Amino acid sequence: MAEIDMGVYNRLFPYYIEACAVTQYHKRGAKPGGWGGHATIFMSGAEIDPGAGYPRLRLASAGADLPSSDSGVGVSVNQIFTNVNWVAVPGRLDFFRGGLGADQVLDNSFYEAAVHRATSAGWFDGIAVRDALVRQKPHGMPLQEFVVRHSIGTDFAMNFARTAYCARQPLTREALGRAIAYLNAVNESARARGYIWDAYTNNCSHVVHNAVAAAGVWDPKETRSPGPTSVVRDVMSVAKAIALGRMSDFSFPANTFVRLYEAGNERPIEDAVAASRNHDVARTMSDGWLSTGPGALIATYPMHDGDRNRLFAAGRDPFLFSVPMLWDKEEKFRRLTRTPPSAVTDLYANLTHFRDRYLKALATQPANNGDTFGERFRERLAQELQRTQSLIAEYRVLDGANRG
């Protein structure tokens, strides 16, 4: 799929959260990593708080250079951490590509340079890891360099080793602030009480999901301490989710990717009755916005080309939890990651697609049917149509300027 101009996108949508499901880690000559894949977040409108002494975020000032194609912060959870839950890496280029150009060769020399650059940047300063892992540290190697070596390809420079499938959700500044507050609270808790990762009850995807939930897109999932009792409670949450039409507390990276695509593109906006019955639409309406709307794109950031990749082999896709006839998402995941429609990969096609959806919805929605929600919903659609038409006009100006 073609890449969009992130400078143009960031100018139109300065605040957003991008949930990514990434493929399996597989270093050449070594055993492949975990079967579940990995989940990360990239946020525009956020920045690292430089004075915290540990990974902490803050909203970028309103005058910051948000339209820059490399603005934003990547956030990644790592099971080896013990005093924080996640680490933050500034900039799209370092987070996904590790500074590696598409035409460059990824060899030991470039890999070592990326390790030393990340260590010098201090992104992992103040992070402690499991004692059993520390005992493997070579004598004389600084701890932070050792942590970086166990994080590269997972917490930054992901495309050295993995392909990332990402769903992007535009947010209001206030909503992004709530997601940042949640992430900070998680790391503050880990600083005070420690962090213990668990594959089923408290993993990377739980943090990604709950950051999106804090922004108001959907309900949060409960995280639990490791142990069989916690797993049983998670299994019980599946039955509750089926009965209530909600989500279970299990969380998997690929599922979060599919769900955020659906939140941005498939919630009912053509029918006020259906919208009023949708728990998530009703919540975002009460917050003064709709998650299904322009700018909700998907993107694939591929692993570095195999002919130029001396260090890593392609791993399997992240595990997708799918229940035939109840919550069957296999076909949708394949379509989004292999042959996605242009309306979710091309910004102009996306903008005109939502303009047409709003026009159709307003044409079929009664102007006044005595329903308070229906009246508010129609008013919201009219506002969204006006906003989308303005975005289209601005896009044409920006795109024309870029084409020169």
Provide structural commentary.
This protein is an alpha+beta fold and 404 residues long. It has one domain (6-346). The chain is built from 14 helices and eight strands. The chain has helices spanning 6-12, 92-97, 108-121, 131-134, 143-149, 173-193, 204-214, 228-244, 253-265, 272-277, 279-286, 330-338, 347-364, 372-403, and strands at 16-22, 38-44, 46-48, 57-59, 73-77, 86-90, 164-170, 298-301. The strands form two sheets. It has a six-stranded antiparallel beta sheet. A hairpin with an 8-residue loop joins β5 (73-77) and β6 (86-90). The longest helix is centred in the C-terminal third of the chain and has 32 residues, at 372-403. It is globular. The two termini are 24 Å apart. The mean pLDDT is 91.
How many helix segments?
14
- Low-pLDDT residue intervals, each spanning 5 or more residues: none
Gross morphology: globular
N/C terminus separation: 24 Å
Strands, total number: 8
The overall pLDDT, averaged over residues, is 91
Q: What is the secondary structure topology, with strand pairs?
A:
Layout: H1 6-12, E1 16-22, E2 38-44, E3 46-48, E4 57-59, E5 73-77, E6 86-90, H2 92-97, H3 108-121, H4 131-134, H5 143-149, E7 164-170, H6 173-193, H7 204-214, H8 228-244, H9 253-265, H10 272-277, H11 279-286, E8 298-301, H12 330-338, H13 347-364, H14 372-403
Helix pairs in contact: 3-5, 6-7, 13-14
